[in-house]
Design a protein that fits this description.
Blueprint lengths: L20 E4 L8 E4 L14 E2 L16 E2 L2 E2 L9 H7 L13 H24 L1 H27 L5 H9 L3 H39 L2 H18 L22 H9 L4 H8 L5 E2 L4 E2 L3 E7 L6 H5 L2 H8 L6 E5 L7 E7 L25 E6 L4 E4 L6 E4 L6 H13 L5 E6 L15 E4 L3 H26 L13 H5 L8 E6 L2 H4 L5 H15 L4 E7 L9 H6 L2 E4 L5 H8 L20 E5 L6 E5 L4 H18 L14 H5 L2 H7 L7 E3 H11 L1 H4 L4 H8 L7 E6 L5 E8 H13 L5
Parallel strand pairs: 13-17, 13-18, 14-15, 14-16, 16-17
Antiparallel strand pairs: 1-2, 3-6, 4-5, 7-8, 8-10, 9-10, 11-12, 11-20, 18-19, 19-20, 21-23, 22-23
The protein binds adenosine-5'-triphosphate.
Adenosine-5'-triphosphate binds next to α11 and β20.
Length: 741
């Protein structure tokens, strides 16, 4: 009904412009709408509550924080409760335990915060102690003066002096005499008290002074000066200031949201507002995590993408830092439904939530792995089985750190086999050496070739797994895919195998290995999904040349940190994402580790990846290694085994094809060659068809032609095949150019 109702134009007759519209009835029969400006009630309608601020926006100098109240019905939360029972029925029950007591992690985090707070406060004041001392000394004479005047005033009953003066002025002799008598009595008593208390005190003080060493004298003097200094403090200038200045974040109200949306300069919004239609609120603005959430229906014709384009202006309109303002589309609603979440704190400035596995615990790679948190501070996890992950951004936005989170999580599951190819050549992922089966870092040809060999091996592994899975009894593998139960049966070799390729553009753009690598990666992504082989690819150059289309279109989980343009955005996040308002282009250079995550949850989500610094990563890797030693699964490079044989690493498709083409055969059918290749290296070539051979040889400029041959039955035929001489020439060229092999 919210969309079907006229927002405002159907004002009751006679309502002056700017006073009509609809606001929700918050009476127990919630759902009815009250036309404001008329005082009439519409019949109750069982519908969604619509908050319409078309004409309620502040144009009359009201402050932002004031509620918009029209005909006595407030639009902005919190609303005066119509009846406690109605409120209780409709309200969400607050959790019995406070959030910080609901898990050990939360409790630890709260305790850490408190300890940090105390430490900071203590340090803050400790540094200022000399200053405090100087101020106290400066104020002590005034304090002494105040103390003396106060004591003299008390002894002489100074407080009744005005009463006596009044009696004298009014010439009330008897009243004056009564007051004077009273004063004399008081002064007498007070003098006796002063002598009785003062003389022993002075005596005790003198004895102590004479009996104690100079250090104690100093302490006594310091205390005296301190007390006098405090007595001498001006009322408006306290000695000690607060160590933490609380950030006061204003409430998000409908007025503020409307004002911000109006300030975006979107013609349709302003036109709709002028005509009395416009912005409605399908739900009250509520607290959601450490911020406010407003659900907004934009005027007809305005889409959420229009708003996302102007996030910066929106932040200005809301008077909040950019990193606090996170507008989102609601993908299962209409294109004009906006969810605006406004955080109390800039996301990039807020401390990142600690990675739950940073200090203790192991992981289960068949369950979602903790990855980071969303803008609202809710944990975000990524499921690896049946997925592949692509991470992309401009240099330095936090790709490797995001990859490291997944890498260490995989390491913490002793059943998970991890291969790491850091083609950036830095030591960012070095901690993985302690538990990974394969670990290579470098940007030289040898490292890139090693990555290619890994992809070949992965492809062969996929083929092996497919056969292994097919041969399993159906009751063990009802869904035809690798499961935790199958992974636990070590002998089957169906555990999860996750291969990480950081800066994978260096592999895919390699003049010799690039094309084959692209084909292999696409195959592995497409075929390995259900077979427990997962690729995690990170690239800082997401364009058509650096990321094969087969790869960019097939990965299912995508994390895009800051990028420059629409092409890169859609390359990483998927086609039309930019158009749909999922724009990593709006992120700022300071938004390190923050990006859009697509595929891990139903809707794209803005996520801050957990940040694991190098010392912590080393400790996590130690735990991962220990867990593997205990489970008996430490293998490969982490167990000191030698990396794959150099012959294997340097052999290429050219060498293998030449190996199966004896000099006696000048031209051979492609199908014959792949059959021989499968015999030569079953692990690498089983399952290959003539098509794959064509793709694999294409980078070397070799394409099949028509070849006359004889089929097994003895019948001659013309089919597609390869000339041996082409292979020989390609190998010669490669050797001349120093291309390896
Ligand atoms: N989640 C995060 N939270 C806070 N800071 C982060 C986060 N991720 C990364 N950073 C910061 O950003 C810096 C760069 O991160 P990282 O090396 O992962 O970027 P990159 O995109 O891989 O860079 P390059 O493209 O050069 O490889 C880190 O040193 C760290 O200071």
């Amino acid at each position: 009904m919210s969309e079907n109702l006229p927002s405002t134009p159907s004002d009751p007759a006679g309502a002056p412009p700017g006073t009509g519209g609809w606001v929700p009835d918050v009476s127990p029969e919630a759902g009815s709408l009250i036309p404001y400006g008329s005082g009439d009630r519409l019949p109750a309608a069982p519908a969604q509550i619509v908050y319409d601020l078309v004409k309620a926006a502040p144009r009359d100098g009201r402050s932002d924080t004031e509620d918009v109240v029209v005909t006595g019905v407030p639009v902005n939360p919190p609303e005066p409760p119509p009846s406690p029972w109605a409120l209780a029925r409709s309200g969400a029950r607050r959790p019995v335990m406070p959030t910080w007591l609901r898990s050990w992690a939360a409790l630890r985090s709260a305790a850490r915060w408190f300890a940090g707070y105390c430490f900071h406060t203590a340090l803050f004041h400790a540094v200022r102690l000399p200053f405090y001392a100087a101020v106290l000394v400066w104020r002590a004479p005034r304090g002494l003066g105040r103390a003396t005047t106060g004591a003299a005033g008390w002894l002489t009953d100074a407080e009744t002096r005005p009463a006596r003066a009044t009696a004298i002025r009014r010439e009330e002799t008897s009243e004056y005499l009564r007051l004077a008598k009273l004063r004399d009595a008081r002064v007498r008593v007070r003098t006796i008290v002063a002598i009785a208390a003062g003389l022993p005190t002075i005596a005790a003080f003198t004895i102590t002074w004479m009996a104690t060493p100079p250090a104690v004298h100093l302490a006594i003097l310091a205390i005296l000066v301190g007390v006098l200094g405090m007595l001498g403090a001006p009322a408006d200038r306290p000695l000690v200031g607060p160590a933490v200045t609380p950030t006061k974040v204003g409430r998000l109200t409908a007025d503020i949201v409307v004002r911000a949306l109006e300030s975006l300069g979107i013609a349709e919004i302003n036109k709709a507002r002028r005509e009395g239609g416009g912005i409605t609120f399908p739900a009250p603005i509520t607290r959601d995590g450490p911020g406010w959430r407003a659900d907004v229906d934009l005027p007809y014709g305005v889409t959420v993408s229009d708003i996302l384009d102007r996030r910066e202006r929106l932040a200005s309109g809301l008077r909040r830092p950019l990193g606090c303002v996170w507008p989102e589309a609601v993908h299962d609603a209409h294109a004009g439904r906006l969810v605006l979440w406004v955080g109390d704190e800039d996301m990039s400035a807020a401390p990142a939530a600690e990675w739950p596995l940073a200090r203790r615990g192991t992981a289960d790679v068949f369950a979602p792995l903790p990855f980071g948190s969303d803008a609202r501070g809710r944990p975000v996890a990524v499921l690896l089985p049946e997925n592949n992950v692509l991470v992309g951004s401009l240099p330095g936005a936090g790709k490797t750190s995001a990859v490291r989170v997944l890498l260490l999580a995989c390491g913490l599951d002793p059943t998970c086999e991890v291969w790491v190819y850091n083609l950036k050549g830095t030591g960012d992922l070095d901690s993985a050496e302690k538990f990974a089966h394969r670990y290579v870092t470098g940007i030289d040809d040898a490292s890139i070739e090693a990555a290619l060999v890994a992809l070949r091996d992965l492809r062969a592994e996929v083929v092996r797994r497919a056969t292994a899975l097919k041969n399993l009894p159906k009751d063990l593998c009802p869904d035809g895919k690798v499961t935790r139960a199958l992974a636990n049966r070590r002998s089957l070799g169906l555990h999860l195998l996750v291969a990480f390729f950081d800066e994978c553009q260096n592999l895919f753009t390699h003049p010799v290995y690039g094309e084959e690598a692209g084909t292999l990666a696409t195959d592995v992504i497409k075929l390995g999904r259900a077979l427990g082989v997962v690729l995690v690819l990170a690239t800082q150059r997401p364009d058509a040349n650096s990321l094969p289309t087969g790869v960019s279109s097939s990965v299912s989980v995508r994390f895009c940190l800051r990028v420059m343009g629409q092409v890169e955005n859609d390359m990483i996040l998927g086609t039309s994402m930019y158009k749909n308002g999922v724009r990593a282009t709006t992120l700022r250079p300071t938004d390190k580790g923050i990006g859009y995550l697509v595929g891990a949850t139903d809707d794209p989500l803005i996520v801050r990846a957990a940040y694991i610094d190098t010392p912590t990563a080393e400790k996590v890797a130690d735990r991962a290694r220990a867990a593997r030693i205990q489970a008996g699964t430490l293998a490969g490079i982490a167990a000191g085994e030698t990396p794959p044989e150099p012959t294997e690493r340097t052999s290429t498709i050219l060498d293998d094809v030449l190996a199966v083409l004896p000099a006696s055969e000048t031209k051979v059918w492609s199908e014959t060659i792949v059959a021989r290749l499968a015999e030569l290296r079953p692990d690498a070539y089983t399952g290959w068809g003539a098509e794959q051979l064509t793709v694999a040889l294409k980078p070397y400029g070799i394409s099949p032609g028509q070849v006359w041959g004889t089929a097994p039955g003895g019948k001659g035929a013309n089919r597609r095949g390869i000339e041996r001489q082409q292979i020989v020439s390609a190998i010669t060229d490669r050797s001349r150019s120093g291309g390896g092999g």
